[in-house]
UniProtKB/TrEMBL annotation, chain A:
It comes from Rhizobium giardinii. The keyword Iron-sulfur applies. It holds the Pfam family Rieske. InterPro entries: ARHD_Rieske_2Fe_2S, Cholesterol_7-desaturase, Rieske_2Fe-2S, Rieske_2Fe-2S_sf. Residues 9-113 form the Rieske domain. One of its GO terms (molecular function) is 2 iron, 2 sulfur cluster binding. This is Nitrite reductase/ring-hydroxylating ferredoxin subunit. Keywords: 2Fe-2S, Iron, Iron-sulfur, Metal-binding, Oxidoreductase. It comes from the Bacteria.
TrEMBL record, chain B:
InterPro entries: Cholesterol_7-desaturase, VanA_C_cat. The lineage of its organism: Bacteria, Pseudomonadati, Pseudomonadota, Alphaproteobacteria, Hyphomicrobiales. It comes from Rhizobium giardinii. This is Phenylpropionate dioxygenase-like ring-hydroxylating dioxygenase large terminal subunit. Residues 94-267 form the Vanillate O-demethylase oxygenase-like C-terminal catalytic domain. The keyword Membrane does not apply.
C-alpha cells in the first residue's frame, strides 16, 4: 500500500477480472467505489453512489466511454461529470452534477486506486504476474500469523515450499475482511500455479480459523 | 427516534383473508405486534405489552396504529365500484425506508432501466411535463404520460399510458393508470407500506382492476415481478433512510412528485424513515 505523506495506492482488482464494458464494486480504506472499464479499455473509479437518488453505481452498466446508473440511466464520464439524463434527452447536464472520482493506474496486470493524493506511481511487480484474488474474512494480522511472515507495505512475501515464493498483496476491506491478490513468478509452470492457488486457499482457511477463535486481533 | 406525527397514522399489518385465530406476529414501527382473527371473525391487533391497538379492515388489509388515529382511513372510491376485480397481491419485504419505497412507486423515469421491456424501454426515456399539486392535503400528480411496451397484463403491444398518483398517507400511494380494455376508466394500483422499522418495511400492493380475463395467478406474478425489480434498487440506495435535506440528492423536472412528497413529509413532521440532516 506504500503510504507517503499525501496518500497511497491500493490494489483493488486484477486487470483480467475487469473486462471491457463492465463495472464492479471495490473498496479502498476511503470507502466503496465503482470500478469500471470502458468499451475502449480505459479504467476509471468513482464514488459508488449516484448523486441523483443515492443508487450504487457499481450496479450500473457501461456503454461506450460512460458509466450509467441502473436506476434512471444517468451516465457519467471517466472524469465524473454527468453526460446524460435520459428523462430529459434535450438537456445538457450542468457541470455541478458529478460523481467524485479517484485516480486509477494499471500496471503488471493489477488495477491500483489512489487513496488521497499520492505523489508517485504504484509499486512495480518486477518479474511477477497476478494469479487470482481471494477475499478472506480475516485481518492482516491473522494472515501474518497464518503465513508466519510479516507484511511489508506491499503485502506478504511467502515461501510456500523451498523452491517457490509468492507475494500476497493485501487490500483492507470493511468488517475485518482482507482482499488478497496472489502474485507469482512469470516463469511458473502450470503445476506451480495450481500449487500457489491451493496454498493461498489453505492460508485463507488458516487465517479465518485464527480470526474465528479470537487468536488473531 | 422522536415521537413524530406518523405514530397516529393507520398502517397495513396483514391481509384480512389470510388471518386466522393463531395470529400473525409482525411489527409496527419497531414494536412487536400480533394480528389475529377472534372467535367472532373480527380482526384484533395487540401491541407488545398486550394492549389492544386500533383496528380497521379495508381494501383487503387489516390496518392498525400505535397511536390514536385522528381520522378514518383515507377513502378510495374505486374500491366500491361494481365490475372491478380486487386483487390482494401479497407482501414483499424490503430492507429500506418505508418512505423510499413510496417515493420509488411515484417515479416513472426508472421504468426503462429497472422494468425494461415491461413498463418502459429505451429509447423512450423522456418524461414529459406533468402537474403536481396538493389537493385536500394529499400529494397529487396528474397528466403523467409514459410510453410502455407492456403497461399491464391485459395490454398487448406498446402504448402511451397515462398515470395519476395520489399520496393520501405518509406510507401509502394510489396509482391510477390507463385501463387497456376500457378506455375512459382507470385501473387502480395501490402501494400500502407497513413500516417494520425505519429501514425495513413490508410492501403490500393491492389492485382494483377492470380485467375479467387474466388469471389471478398471472396478475399476481406480474406485480411480483415488478416489485422484485424495484427491490433490487431499494436495497442498494445510500443512505437507507429518505434524505429530506435538499442538498443530499439532486432532483430534476421529472422528479417533481418526489420533491412535493418530500416537502409534504417535512411539513407534517412525517419523519419516521427520513434522514433530516446530511451525515
Amino acid at each position: 500500500m506504500l503510504p507517503d505523506t499525501t496518500g497511497f495506492w491500493t490494489p483493488v482488482a486484477l486487470s483480467a477480472d475487469l473486462p471491457a464494458g463492465t463495472v464492479m464494486p471495490a473498496r479502498t480504506p476511503a470507502g466503496s467505489i465503482a470500478l469500471w472499464r470502458s468499451d475502449s479499455g480505459r479504467t476509471a473509479a468513482s464514488a459508488d453512489r449516484c448523486p441523483h437518488r443515492g443508487m450504487r453505481l457499481s450496479h450500473g452498466f457501461v456503454r461506450g466511454e460512460a458509466l450509467s446508473c441502473i436506476y434512471h440511466g444517468w451516465s457519467y464520464a471517466q472524469a465524473g461529470n454527468c453526460l446524460r439524463i435520459p428523462a430529459h434527452p434535450g438537456l445538457a447536464p450542468p457541470e455541478t452534477i458529478r460523481v467524485a472520482t479517484q485516480r486509477v493506474e494499471e500496471t503488471d496486470g493489477l488495477i491500483w486506486v489512489a487513496v488521497g493524493e499520492p505523489t508517485g506511481h504504484p509499486p512495480r511487480m518486477e518479474g511477477l504476474v497476478p494469479l487470482r484474488s481471494l477475499m478472506a474474512h480475516a485481518s492482516v494480522s491473522a494472515l501474518e500469523i497464518a503465513a508466519g511472515a510479516t507484511a511489508d507495505p506491499v503485502g506478504i512475501v511467502w515461501k510456500i515450499e523451498p523452491s517457490q515464493t509468492i507475494r500476497l498483496l493485501l487490500a483492507l476491506q470493511e468488517d475485518d475482511q482482507t482482499l488478497i491478490h496472489v502474485m507469482l513468478s512469470d516463469k511458473c509452470s502450470p503445476a506451480q500455479r495450481i500449487a500457489a492457488s491451493r496454498a493461498a486457499e489453505s492460508l485463507r482457511r488458516a487465517a479465518e480459523a485464527l480470526q474465528a477463535k479470537g487468536i488473531a486481533p | 427516534m422522536t415521537h413524530d406525527a406518523m405514530i397516529d397514522e393507520w398502517y397495513p399489518v396483514g391481509l384480512f383473508s389470510k388471518l386466522d385465530a393463531g395470529g400473525r406476529k409482525t411489527a409496527l414501527m419497531g414494536e412487536p405486534i400480533d394480528v389475529a382473527r377472534d372467535a367472532e371473525g373480527n380482526a384484533r391487533v395487540t401491541g407488545g405489552n398486550g394492549r389492544p391497538l386500533p383496528v380497521c379492515v379495508r381494501y383487503g388489509h387489516v390496518w392498525s396504529s400505535l397511536g390514536a388515529p385522528q381520522k378514518a382511513l383515507f377513502a378510495i372510491p374505486e374500491a366500491d365500484q361494481a365490475g372491478r376485480r380486487f386483487v390482494d397481491v401479497g407482501v414483499v419485504r424490503v430492507r429500506c425506508s418505508p418512505l423510499r419505497a413510496v417515493e420509488n412507486f411515484l417515479d416513472i423515469a426508472h421504468f426503462p432501466f429497472v422494468h425494461t421491456d415491461i413498463l418502459g424501454a429505451e429509447p423512450h426515456t423522456e418524461v414529459q411535463n406533468y402537474k403536481v399539486e396538493i389537493r385536500e392535503d394529499e400529494v397529487w400528480a396528474t397528466q403523467v404520460k409514459f410510453y410502455q411496451p407492456q403497461a399491464a397484463k391485459s395490454a398487448s403491444g406498446g402504448i402511451t399510458t397515462e398515470y395519476m398518483y395520489r399520496v393520501p398517507a405518509p406510507t401509502c400511494a394510489v396509482l391510477y393508470k390507463t385501463c387497456p380494455p376500457r378506455p375512459g376508466e382507470w385501473d387502480v394500483i395501490t402501494l400500502f407500506v407497513q413500516p417494520l422499522a425505519e429501514d425495513l418495511c413490508d410492501v403490500w400492493p393491492w389492485m382494483a382492476l377492470y380485467d375479467d380475463t387474466t388469471t389471478l395467478t398471472d396478475l399476481i406474478h406480474f406485480q411480483q415481478t415488478i416489485f422484485l425489480q424495484d427491490r433490487s434498487i431499494l436495497e442498494n440506495q445510500i443512505p437507507r433512510l429518505l434524505p429530506l435535506d435538499p442538498g443530499m440528492e439532486i432532483p430534476t423536472r421529472a422528479d417533481l412528485t418526489s420533491v412535493a412528497y418530500r416537502r409534504w413529509l417535512k411539513r407534517h413532521d412525517y419523519t419516521y424513515g427520513a434522514q433530516l440532516v446530511a451525515q
